[in-house]
Structures are given as C-alpha cells and as structure tokens.
Amino acid sequence: MKKINNNFLLISLACLPSIFICLFYYLATNGHFFSDIGIHYDGKFILAAEQILDVGFYTDNFFLPFYPYFLALIFSIFGFNLFYPIFFNILFHGLTAFMLGNIIKNFNEKWFYPTIIFVSFWPHLVWRTTYVYGETIFVFLLVSSLFFLFNYLNKKKISYLIYSSLFLGISFLTKGSSIFLIFTLPFFLFFFFRKKITKNFFTLFNLVFVYVFLMCFVMSIQFLRIYKETGYFGYSYQSGNILYSYIYPCLSTNFGCGKKDRDAIKKAVDLYEEEKKRLGVNEIENIYYKDLIQKKIAIKLIKELEFSQIFMSSLGGYLKIFFHNITYDIFERLNIKSLHLTDFAGNIYIKTKTMLIQIFKEDRVMIIWLIAQLFLFLSRIVQTFGILYFFNLKNKIYEFLLLLIFFIPTIFPVLSLGTIRYRATLEPLLIVLTISGLYFIRNIILKKSN
Q: Burial code of 212-242, b = ≥16 C-beta within 10 A, e = fewer?
C-alpha cells in the first residue's frame, strides 16, 4: 500500500509542470484556451469524435482511429469540453515520466528519480500536452509497451509480454510513425529473448509469435475499418497524401522543409489531374483509390530526383527536427513575432550574423529563442556522450538496442519534413541519452579528480 501511495505521489508531481504550462497558456490567451482549433492543432480529430458520437463511426478522415474514439469516449462521459482531453494529456505525461523512470532503472537504479524529473520538465513533451493531438498519448503507449516488455524480461511473467504487445498494437492505431517496428522488432526479439529468456528454439518461436500475433490482431481493427469504408484492404489512406503533398515537395527543396517547393507541388497536381481524367466516377470518389494514385505519382516523381538532392533534403529535414527548439511553436500560438534564418539573405554565416544583430537591437523577445537554442545544442552534445556511455555498458547492449529499435523508426516516415512536432516521439530516447550523458561526463570528471 505504501508503494502504491509513493507511486501515486510521484505521478502527481510529474504532472505539475504540465499543469503549470497549461495554466500559463490559458492566462496568456485570456481564457480563450481553444480559440486556435484547426490552426495550431488539427480540428479533424474533434470532427471525427463528433461524427463517432453522432453515427458511431467516422469516415473521410485519414487519422488513425484510437485517438478519435478516445476523444469520443471522453466527450460522451464529460460532455463536449476540450478541457478534458488536455487533462488526460497531463495525466499521460505524468505516467510516461514514471514508466520511463522504471525503464531506465534497468541500466542504473540511481537514474530513476532524475529521469522522472527530466521527463516532467522536458519542454517539448510538456508543451505537447496543451494540444488536442495524438502525440502525447502515442508517446505514452510506446513507453507503456516498452515498460511492460522490460517487466517481462525481469519477472518472466507472460502477462507482461501480452500487455506490451497490446499497447504496441494500440500505438499503431494512434499514429503510423512507428509502423516500421513491425519489420524490425520481431527479429530483434527472437535474438534478445534467446540471450535473456531461453535458448530453446520452439519456446522462442512461440514467444515471438504470440507477441506479433496479438500486435497484428489489434492492428487488424484498422484494416477492417478501411475495408468497410473504401472496399480496399489496407492500413491507411494517409501515406499517399503525405508522399504527394509533403515528402516530394520537401525533397525538392535545397535543405528540406521549411517551405515546400511550389513548382514541385504544381507538377504533382498537374499529374494527378491528368490521372483523374482516366478514372471512373467511383474511383475518383474513393478516398483509398485516390491515395493509391497520389502514392504512385509521388514515388514516380521522387525517383526522378537526383540522389544528391534527396540526400541533402533529407539531411536538412532531420537536422531541423533535431536542432529546432519549441519557442517558434510557442511564439506562433501566442501571436508573437519571430525571426527565421530564411528571412535573411546571404550565406549561412551572413544570415546568422544579421539575425543575431537584429535580435539584440530590435526583436529582443527572440533572446528567449536564442537561450533555448543554446541549451538545445548543449543537450545534443551531452546526448552524444550518452551514446558512448551505453556502448561501454557491454552487459546492457541488448537493452540499449531495444530502446533504439523502439524509438528510432518513429522518425523514418518524416523524411525531409523538418517539423519539430515529429520529434516528440523520439524525446523519451533523447531524455535517456541526456541522463546517461550527464553520468558519463560526471564519471570522467571524478576519475580526473582522483
């Protein structure tokens, strides 16, 4: 009972920073907490939830089903008040902090409390709780799956393996960014379980089969939903639109998005309009078939790009994901003017120098951005040391690889997009690397002092 009370207290304390930020945003917008619906977070989640409440399901909406149905459940219990999704975001954030703290105990018992503190105050994850969007609950589901998987490894109870599989399956119904796990995780688990659980081939096969079967069983809900709506059997009708409307135009830019290449957009649209002329009415109106056509056009156009173009755009997109801080998002939501390097002419040195001069002379609010950027660069250096620390833990290398396999694939689908929101799913891993990096630096300092 005492342990339960302690855990409840830790989770409650981990929620406090998110409560404070949500309250700050509420006061900063004079109580118009949700006046930016459809602008700074997507109102389609809300529309899908309303449609579910009206007719029991939703259609013509490419978002995956778990979060819309979760919102519908909240609205059916508490009424249509957008405070409650934010409240559950805060709760999920606190639970994520607690579970990640328990996960990292597998590497070092002393890291438990620092991890909870870091997750609780991690700016990007805290700020995400103010959005009615799927990132917070997706991170919670992914960390939950990993939490139960580590529990299975430690306690050898099959129920934990089942919970891990189910939570991972639900995460596939929340966001598609972790879909590549299906292709990597089963193979890794086979070798991981052989190292940690048993060397019996038959037992290994059964364990991995149960895990994959349950995960795919949960995913089948989405395949059946798509089939019922469109007559096609598939995971979603979102991938074609992303490739066609975002990935290809972003790959066509010099250094990723930023801003999409307008000529590339026009080229894709013209090809799509030509393709539509060859289609029948039923095909044109079928959202899944439309997605297939867009996917075919996007892949064709991407293949026409030079490899160097694709490489530089992808590199630029990932650099922006890793090296942009959240102040731009905050400024945008609070209608505060901000500066971007793209606002200035010249090479990178001239742009940076001109931007810094303007920050200190005119747009002093951007000093907040500058401080946040310096801390972000510092954190990346610390995280690099964190990677070195884990690779030196030879008896825990499989556990570290499990972390990488769970989180790294979540940024594969956002090739060249460069939007900080897509980094949210990677933040738990970055927090773990920050903790390990700080301990690595601390150990170096202690060795030198001795």
A: bebbeebbebbeebbeebbeeeeebbebbbb
